[in-house]
């Protein structure tokens, strides 16, 4: 075996090795899509499974308790209002992106502030819903319905909170001049995430309040 | 289908016998061997195993044969060898996709066929209902809808179907008697069912097969298959209240010790006809008719009873039976009492 | 060699230990993964040896039931999450950018974050031994046994939280692989020209992305049960123990393919190179990867045939499990066809790869036996299953990873591993593993359940267990030779050329070890083996007079290298503190600060959790404000 190795190395003649073509300083991505945008999409796919598993848990446990023990204390009006708010915040997010694409930075900042604000209002509505339940003696560990409800909406609320922090960071970055009409991918990414969290809520609203 | 199946299973059995001759399957039949079936269900399952096993062996020999042949045949002899650059061959690849797929389809068909005959969901007829309860770490068996509670020995009549209802109020266990029937898990919150049927009188060992905590290893039991007459006699006996020990005998003293709250026995155990009504541990009304104790870790005999009662934690570390240290004198009296509970 | 390459200066250039702590170089991160994973592999192996020693004799008392339960739980968790998965990540990290002709991963700092989360997740898991007990509910932690009522120590809490950290690590690693592979291929390297290791990594990453969130949710719910007294899995209060099993195995079955598919790729590379042939049936191999991964999402309940599902469900999951055997069979036959009429270089790497085919076949076949539902009812939860999955994970993944080490060690270090020790390692491993794992199948048929710490002599299992234990020690000796080989080889002179094995893929076209920027120039890519095409000509035109290739220097390339960053480590520390803060921060634990005197609704404050969140945000802000390159 060792002999084969030696022969092999000897068999290579001392030609000048082949060099190939020089790699340019800036390499285009293979798909033309920015890395960050692609990773965001894949991440959202992964998050979908996370929420799907939580929703499955909720659906399994939904009918195990009487209305009195939990679901009866939910407030459809508040939840509908919240759904509207969150959908509206998606609109302001879209408009913010549009604004910066049209080089209207001030307008974008205003719309981002509005989006974050609506996000906070949503969390306020969520808190109201929680307090209502807790005042009726229904807490996280009361029964499997309440546990599933708080887990599902709690994880979603956490995502909304992260979204708000994200938007605040975008605003700070914009104020420091880090975002312009030529460099606004960050806004697009934040928007993707925000719309996803929104969309999740629409599904949650449906399975918790409507069906 | 049926015919084909019989033919295959006979072939499988014959091949397995030859395997045994090679000493691979060696060793005398053990109590828990799935290839020593004592019931039609276990027999069919073993046949299916043999069949799939021998198909696997043929494929295995084929693959290994090619592998070893190629490794020897195609070793590099010269440093500048440039073998033919073969990128693939669609016909060949379709062949080795289709043949395994067809084989697997056949095995799948047989699987479904056997499932219909041995599945816990498909009892072969009406039968005697019993309930088996998994505890940490012993098996309880109930007859007559819970009126008779017994532990570790599951008596059933030969030649009759027995419907088994499986319950647990703690963790998941799995009910398994290899020579009679495959596993069914005992899941808290669910009532699973399975069945037992054999016409062969005997004692068959079983074991909890789902990890259930510290003493999972020693959660054993026996299925004692009796003739219907013997079974009736046994069942009649265990329905009676416990025997009363002779006055002033050692057993009578043992009964006093048993019922004394200081020894904590009655916290967990019941003996019908006395004030002991605990539910955590095995019902001991007819403990002396059992073949084994301590989750079937120990045979039922005098020495083992002494060993067990002297220090349960040493015999079965982690067992829920935590009792104050008894004096040898107390142990002897208790053992005498328990031995009287035929 | 790389004299003409002009690397742009970086903002900071730490040296020594700091250069490793702040590294974002995929090759260094790959090596960190590999070294750490090998250490955990040895620890998991020692646990296995203690288990085997305990079982060598009937009624043995070397370890008691509690320690035994901790040992097999830790052995399983370690080997899966701290050894095989990170070994795959290590090879992937090192090789994927090189194989696709990229200069780094798409997100170098995310890559570092993946490593640090792996390290800290592992340390968190093992720290449970120091604070009151390791997890003891088995690697699949079936509820309710893993609930607080039945496992009262903090072991399972540590298990849950360290697996959450490891889960994040796997997710960020996979996101990075997916984007890197899809977006950073050299010009001409279309998706049907990816080297098969890259294919395997891509498919594995997709599996991680879609499978892991399920177990992540399962574990959160278990954590809520344990810490906040909910009842997701407790039937007395409406919960359902089978919910755990479904959520767990929806992850758990794809997980076995997550562990085995990169090794499939490794084997494909080694067999092709050592045969001097292309992989036979490249397209079928690639489709088999995709097929296996797709079907793997539809077979999870074959782990649950005995839980009392409906016959229809049993039949469907059995059917899908048979289906998954077909693409696996395609792979085995295509590997055989790859070495058929090749020019085989028999060295340690090849031996392990060939050994892989021979042994993995057994794992595949015993898997088919298990998919026959009635047989499964008999042998599930026995040593038959243990034998089966060790034939897929040890004979499969671990043999392939050994093979990969012998194959790429010269590339990573510039040094060869010793052949004699390598072959000694191979034969000890082969004989040892056959004794352990083949006999396990037989002991399972004899009725020995898994996870029992002892058994009676009357069962007739003792002699077989004793032989298994001897086998386990033989394997351990093999690993010892392997470790000695690595340590002694590192002291030798660097003699490896760019292309010591006459390779086919791009990693062999640069120096050994490669420069920080990997490549200065690139070859045209017209097939899955661009280097081979360049050396021998696409149709073997230069076969009698092959060329040599060196892409590591030449010309004046301008190279951007990403700046080193400490922030991935800071983020990881933050997350680890959060984990510890959750374990000890509630129910009057040591990290629960009593603030009941302050007149607020909140009675106690989980200070660990709060501290962790603060550190996490410091890391996040640092990360965001540091320019990416």
Structural features, described:
- The complex is a heterotrimer of chains A (211), B (342) and C (629).
- Chain A is mostly helical and 211 residues long.
- Chain A is built from six helices and one strand; from the N terminus they run αβααααα.
- In chain A, helix 2 packs antiparallel against helix 5 (144-175), helix 2 packs parallel to helix 6 and helix 4 (105-135) packs antiparallel against helix 5 (144-175).
- Chain A starts with a helix and ends with a helix.
- Chain B is of the alpha+beta class and 342 residues long.
- Chain B has three domains: 2-73 and 90-118, Helix Hairpins; 129-238, Sandwich (Immunoglobulin-like); 250-340, Sandwich (Immunoglobulin-like).
- In chain B, helix 1 (2-21) crosses helix 2, helix 2 (40-73) runs antiparallel to helix 3 and helix 6 (302-310) crosses helix 8 (328-340).
- The two termini of chain B are 51 Å apart.
- The model of chain B is unreliable at 1-5 and 14-30 (pLDDT under 50).
- With 629 residues, chain C is mainly alpha-helical.
- Chain C folds into two domains: 21-183 and 194-510, Up-down Bundle (Cytochrome C Oxidase, Chain A), CATH 1.20.210; 566-629, no CATH class.
- Chains A and B meet through helix 1 of A and loops of B.
Write the layout of secondary structure elements.
The complex is a heterotrimer of chains A (211), B (342) and C (629).
Chain A (H helix, E strand, L loop, with lengths): L1 H10 L9 E2 L12 H28 L13 H26 L3 H31 L8 H32 L9 H26 L1
Helix pairs in contact in A: 2-5, 2-6, 3-4, 3-6, 4-5, 5-6
Chain B lengths: L1 H20 L18 H34 L16 H29 L9 E8 L2 E6 L4 E4 L1 E5 L4 E7 L4 E5 L3 E6 L5 E5 L5 E6 L12 E7 L1 H11 L11 H10 L32 E2 L4 E2 L2 H9 L1 H4 L12 H13 L2
Parallel strand pairs in B: 1-5, 4-10
Antiparallel strand pairs in B: 1-2, 2-3, 5-8, 6-7, 9-10, 11-12
Chain C lengths: L5 E2 L8 H6 L4 H30 L9 H35 L8 H20 L27 H29 L12 H33 L12 H35 L6 H14 L15 H29 L8 H24 L1 H7 L3 H31 L5 H27 L16 H29 L30 E2 L7 H7 L21 E2 L7 H18 L7 E3 L9 E3 H19 L4
Parallel strand pairs in C: 1-3
Antiparallel strand pairs in C: 4-5
Helix pairs in contact in C: 2-3, 2-4, 2-14, 3-4, 3-5, 3-7, 3-12, 4-5, 4-16, 5-6, 5-16, 6-7, 6-8, 7-9, 7-10, 7-12, 8-9, 9-10, 10-12, 10-13, 12-13, 13-14, 16-17
